[in-house]
Amino acid sequence: MKIFRVVSHKRTLLGFKRSFSREPELKDFLNYLDNLKNYEKCGVPKDAGTDSSHGFDLGRMNRLMDRLGNPQTGFKAVHIAGTKGKGSTAAFLANILRTEGYAVGCYTSPHVRTIRERISLGKLGEPVSAKALNCLFHRIKPILDEAVALENGRLSHFEILTAMAFKLFDQGNVDVAVIEAGLGGARDATNIISSSGLAAAVITTIGEEHMAALGGSLESIAMAKSGIIKHGCPVRWFSLHIYITALWLVLGGPFLPHIEHIFLDKASSMCSPVVSASGPGNRSAVKGVSKSNGKPFQSCDIVIEVERDFKLFIELFDVKLQMLGIHQLQNAATATCVALCLRDKAHTKESAKALVDTIQMTFPEARLALIVAMASDKDHMAFAREFLSGGQLEAVFLTEVNIAGAKSRTTSASMLRDCWIQASKELGINTLHDGMEEYQKLFENQSFCSAGESKHKTILAAENSLPVSLRVGNQILRARTRDQTGIIVITGSLHIVSTVLSSLHG
What we know:
Layout: H1 27-34, H2 39-42, H3 58-67, E1 76-81, H4 86-99, E2 104-107, E3 119-120, H5 130-150, H6 157-171, E4 176-180, E5 198-203, H7 218-225, E6 248-251, H8 257-269, E7 274-276, E8 285-292, E9 295-307, E10 311-321, H9 326-342, H10 348-362, E11 367-372, H11 380-390, E12 393-398, H12 413-427, E13 431-432, H13 437-445, E14 458-462, H14 466-481, E15 486-491, H15 494-505
Parallel strand pairs: 1-4, 1-5, 2-4, 5-6, 6-7, 11-12, 11-15, 12-14, 13-14
Antiparallel strand pairs: 2-3, 8-9, 9-10
Helix pairs in contact: 4-9, 5-6, 7-8, 10-11, 11-12
């Protein structure tokens, strides 16, 4: 098993007086933020973080993101809430993902020396450069000015900074963003990530911090933080070597039993599977403290074994943590659980891009009919975006096949179609799909090469039958391509490829 090394986080700079350096190149941006309401300085009003009429207005943040083009839809996210340990867990997880070669965005708060520390991105994890931050600010300042005016000056320092972080992650094409909630969860400005964009929700600990702002009790704090749990997919479980499903809730803890039940009940209502990093199978331990190049680190073993209807298991020995303390071992264990839950989700975009690139290289002039069936644990939106952006698609048939001999792992054809419709809208690509009169006429008359605008639109069809998908896809290509090369691409899962090959052989 590969051993990962986790580098230190900003919170290890103990003993340094916190200072907010005024970088000259960020003068305009910092002055702009200074004119906004800053709850870190003035304190948070009573019940502001609760999901109630007294809570922060999350609609304000959604309206701001709409004006900025909804950049939060451009990447997968891990959302981390909790009283303590959020930032450390975010740093551990971001470093694990970077070590695996992913481009990672990380958004945390507060900062120690410069506001740029709150936003890191790329494969090295460096704070965003002053140049990049300044360029983005001046480019979108007219939009921000308009938003502030329309919201009667109520947009806060944290809301603007959060929006800019998401914009930077989107334009930087990060594979995954690790996002620390500011206050609570339900009404926090970071809680605008939809269930389709969320890879995992994480709750580290529950304590009495910000008690008044979060309802006055540990139970109300837990309820506020449970607001980051999003609706997953109902699933039937199999062992890990077969598959991992989508949209996890990872609990750090340990929690008081009645607090943990709040999270479990919320996850159950949202059909979101739960993994606990503090369960009985976690046998992690600190073995000692040493130095390397004059810097202290603690040597740890991290053993995660979760046994429910599913199984997660990993053993990491002699892991070197430069963040010291038993509590940091727990944060590292939590991050390890999240990484385990993500490991089957993070490759979908890259796999789709590799296939698109191969098709473009091998058949540069070809028109495509795509036939797709996918398992429930894959990133359907990222897959759709890659193909819609990179291929000359005449038609896409979203279908279903048995996976491991059953339908329980299969994503329904209609759900896949909905993902492709949403992705096409985000990319501004014209499509024909169910519910459109033009689509119905096209299939009733089979006039696949009819004149007019429909000839230039990609057809999206949910079709449960694989043979029908193949037949109609072939008809569309013959009608539309004429003298051009047309190819049918069958993808999404090896199970659909196996099914087609078996059919052809038969």
